[in-house]
Amino acid sequence: GESRNHLLSSGINAEYGEFVVSYSSSDMVRRVVLSSLLLALALCEPTVYLREDFADGDAWSSRWVQSEHDGKTFGKLDLSAGEFFHDAEKDVGLKTMENARFYAVSTEFSTPVESTEGKTLVAQFSVKHEQKIDCGGGYLKLFPSTLDQKQMHGESPYNIMFGPDICGPSARRVHVIFNYRGKNLLLKKEIRCKDDELTHLYTLIVRADNTYEVRIDNKKEQSGKLEEDWDFLEPKEIADPEATQPEDWDDNPFLDDPEDTKPEDWDQAETIPDPEAKKPDDWDDDMDGEWEAPVINNPDFKGEWRPKQIDNPKYQGEWEPPMIPNPNYFEDDKLYLQKDIKFVGIDIWQVKAGTIFDNILITDDEDFARQVAKETFEVSAAGEKEKKEAKDEVERKKREEERKAR
Length: 406
Fold this sequence. Notes:
It is built from seven helices and 24 strands. It has helices at 2-9, 25-44, 60-63, 226-229, 285-288, 366-375, 377-405; strands spanning 12-15, 18-21, 48-52, 64-66, 77-80, 93-96, 101-113, 121-129, 135-137, 140-143, 160-167, 171-180, 183-186, 199-206, 211-216, 219-225, 237-239, 254-256, 271-273, 295-297, 309-311, 323-325, 341-350, 355-363. β15 and β16 (219-225) form a beta hairpin. The longest helix has 29 residues, at 377-405. The radius of gyration is 38 Å and the shape is extended.
């Protein structure tokens, strides 16, 4: 009896050994609301595929795998906050240490990307070219699960390549390259990267509506539609390769005026004897031969006569083959979709080392990425800039003193 009463007071009826849930209307409403809130919270929670801030010291080397691919001499990487920084511990990143070297290291996602269907994909990281870089990469690559980390090299297939690349004063761009059906597609728009000695944050956002956005230092730098800014798809129509120009097609915009005639005095010699030349007094016809005046250009020479041109009344324009449906065209409304990303790698060449990579974040939530940027990059960048300006002022005063001492 007590157990039955307990069940009834708990909103559960027991009849013939069966349990039947029976809530009061107020309990039901509260439970539905609570369940909805829990579900909403779960759905709003960002998925963090990878977050790497190198905050645990030398433990980074247990997560990152150095490539051992034959034929390359790979440079050493180590932790460093650089020569100027905001916080000596929080601003530590992975620094390239040797000049004129390839660098090839990678790490596995804590949560691999199985599919981004219906989701946003965000790749974000900071780069600091403290060495006044003149030629070298500062980008990351996102790799599929098929990557052999110890054999990673420049030709290893990747999903996305994103970040700054500098080579000389003119080639200073942000790469955004997608691998689509086995082809690496380059962004058709130009995004200039930062090339000073400070830390800069690069963010790529790929949305499920097939749009993208590139942010630098947490500010929008470029955006658009994937289909328009990369050559993902073949054109819907192509020129008919079997079409030929008709023989009677008139593509001459002008023709000779049939009523134009050549003037009677048109034909003149191109050169004439110089009328102002005189036979030298000491010229001896017997010894020197018959004297001839030197030749000069004829000022009345007009060249070959051509009738003037008039508009061709039968001009049909430049012939173009007719357009036909492209047999290779297909539609794809999921250009954004990535189905297999498991690793992120630094796969670059640098002439002059000193670049620091930090705060790598791969997630499905662009608001979360922006918040992380505010809490990390924006705080560090402000302090770093002050330290850099102070360092530059000390060096300026030192140079000035040395100049005066000379």
